[in-house]
Inverse folding.
């Protein structure tokens, strides 16, 4: 159990998720010319534990990430289960597939990278403001 306030714990988890997403985008760019390579992305982080921790025993609803199981028909159409043990999944928002089967588009990856950069900057600003607020609260700011 972390001794940090839940807000800081959530910000840390979000920043780690953004770093992982940036790594996956870099892998996509590196494999943009690899025949048959499929673009990947990172699932959004699950913050339900933060919500559950704040609700206590008040009996309020539990937040759960939905789980999709592949049926035989879905598999026949080419659907594949995500890789076990990770939050990295195939990117469903690809704009084109090249004749060699590679569906990485550098423009899409750069747009995703820009979004990660914006989100990270916003999270960093939020962290900075929360730290200044805490310093003010203890008389150090």
């Amino acid at each position: 159990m972390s001794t940090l306030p839940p807000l800081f714990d959530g910000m840390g988890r979000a920043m780690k998720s953004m770093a992982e997403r940036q790594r996956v985008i870099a892998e996509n760019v590196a494999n943009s010319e690899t025949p048959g390579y499929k673009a990947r992305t990172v699932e959004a982080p699950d913050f339900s534990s933060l919500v559950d921790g704040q609700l206590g025993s008040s009996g309020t609803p539990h937040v759960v990430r939905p789980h999709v199981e592949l049926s035989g028909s879905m598999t026949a159409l080419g659907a594949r289960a995500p890789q076990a043990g990770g939050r990295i999944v195939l990117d469903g928002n690809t704009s084109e597939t090249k004749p060699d089967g590679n569906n990485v588009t550098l423009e899409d990856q750069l747009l995703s990278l820009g979004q990660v950069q914006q989100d990270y900057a916003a999270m960093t600003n939020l962290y900075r403001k929360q730290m200044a607020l805490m310093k003010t609260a203890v008389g150090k700011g």
